[in-house]
Specification:
Two copies of one chain form a homodimer. Chain A has about 250 residues and is an alpha+beta fold. The first copy, chain A, contains five helices and twelve strands. Chain A has a five-stranded antiparallel sheet, covered by helices on one side. Chain A has a five-stranded antiparallel sheet with strand order 5-6-7-8-9, with helices on one face. In chain A, α1 (about 55-70) packs across α2 (about 80-100) and α3 (about 155-165) packs antiparallel against α4 (about 170-185). Chain A is globular. The termini of chain A are far apart. The interface between A and B is large, with 55 and 55 residues.
């Protein structure tokens, strides 16, 4: 399983991803799901991947090869981020179609689909954020829906619903993304560290400026989890109690 | 859809359920999913239902009829709560087997299964809490897993994971249950009010002592939601920031 998310707000974009992949409980490995592409002072793009690992890897490799070989369409040629989302959608759909079900014990459950989040900025245009479906079509984030998630999305959604808005600070967005990931890791053992965190500062055109990778047991992860548990327990205890109402409607 | 949960802790049991049912987006209704059975000073039981509404209603009716008619096995005869869990499991499984797929547009998606949470206390024994699967088998809550959920369980799980333990107060348990439901209602439109809330006080043998029903727009629901949004935003803002680490591992 996987959990990746991205947040769009006035100051830029925040990306956060786990690194666990599993093909059954006895085939658990660690793979990066955050990929950066950039051309200095011109464009910066971040791609998050979920779903079939072979499909995701094939798409990421092809993006790199096309850019290196300047062959046909590539990231350097796109006029806006949505063109790159189209291009990734096409690569992903055609990659999935190459492999059809064969016989064997896993034939029934074979699933080559991958889902992607693409965010970034080209030139002077505003940064953009897209979720690319396995079919190749995509949706964008909006002011009413300022974050996108892929993989195991439910556990980590409530905190985003309650906090994320266009005016939040980069620190709040990043903390909230990490808490969203932490909630998910706690509830689903197939989502796990290392966690990759990236803040893309609007108009920096540089995806490497604010990036870090937190290994399992990193002091920051331990600290934020303990602090958060204490904070929300005391916040719950301070909320108005239902006691006065209980018994009202026997 | 449905979301119901129950929490077991030293002071007793907390139950919380939504009331929305839907069979497609244009068939949304409101039905109680919390059912109380009691014999004064002898036993008190609370049943939460999810899944196929016809199956749930048939099981609840049969429980009532068997108790009224003193026919065969009934709630009054059980020596412990697990016996009642067995009995509900049998009623539920046999009810589901009555109806098989017929033709028509919904044949493929027909699903008669129901899942239940049963909690309560008989005589001087400790209170018990069970989750009854559609097949009729059941699991109990434990000190390591002090809450049970049915229906749309993921959105509301993280707050329970972080807060619930044996020593919490009834107020904290109830507030936490309502927040768990509120998070779910916000993320899934097929979970909705009225919300039913019940605190069963250990050894009271009375399920009606602490009960209330909160309609949509109830001032308490509005107040707790606003307070909570403010509390967790300020809690997130007080957490240590990742800023100092970002850039460490470019």
């Amino acid at each position: 399983m996987t959990y990746c998310l991205a947040i769009q707000f006035n100051a830029g974009l925040v990306f956060c991803s786990d690194s666990r992949t599993n093909a059954g409980p006895d085939q658990v490995s660690s793979y990066r799901k955050m990929h950066k592409f950039s051309i200095e002072n011109d464009r910066a793009l971040v791609l998050l991947t979920s779903g079939n690992l072979a499909t995701s890897q094939a798409v990421v490799s092809q993006l790199g090869r096309d850019l290196r070989d300047k062959s046909g369409f590539n990231i350097a040629q796109a006029r806006d981020v949505s063109e790159i989302a189209d291009y990734i959608g096409e690569l992903s759909a055609s990659e999935q179609q190459k492999y059809s079900k064969v016989g064997g014990p896993d034939a029934e459950t074979f699933d080559a689909t991958s889902t992607f989040i693409l965010g970034g900025q080209i030139g002077a245009a505003k940064s953009e954020l897209y979720l690319i479906y396995p079919e190749g079509n995509h949706i964008t984030a909006s002011e009413e829906h300022p974050f996108l998630q892929i993989g195991e999305t439910k556990y980590g959604k409530p905190i985003l619903d309650r906090i994320i808005g266009p005016e939040i600070s980069p620190d709040t967005a990043m903390t909230c993304a990490i808490l969203s990931l932490d909630s998910t890791m706690r509830s689903n053992a197939t989502v796990g560290p290392p966690i990759e965190c990236l803040f893309y500062r609007e108009h920096s055109l540089n995806p490497d400026e604010n990036y870090c990778r937190l290994e399992e047991g990193h002091p920051y992860l331990i600290e934020i989890r303990q602090d958060w548990d204490r904070s929300i327990l005391s916040a719950v205890e301070r909320l108005p109690s239902l006691s006065t109402l209980l018994g009202d409607a026997k």
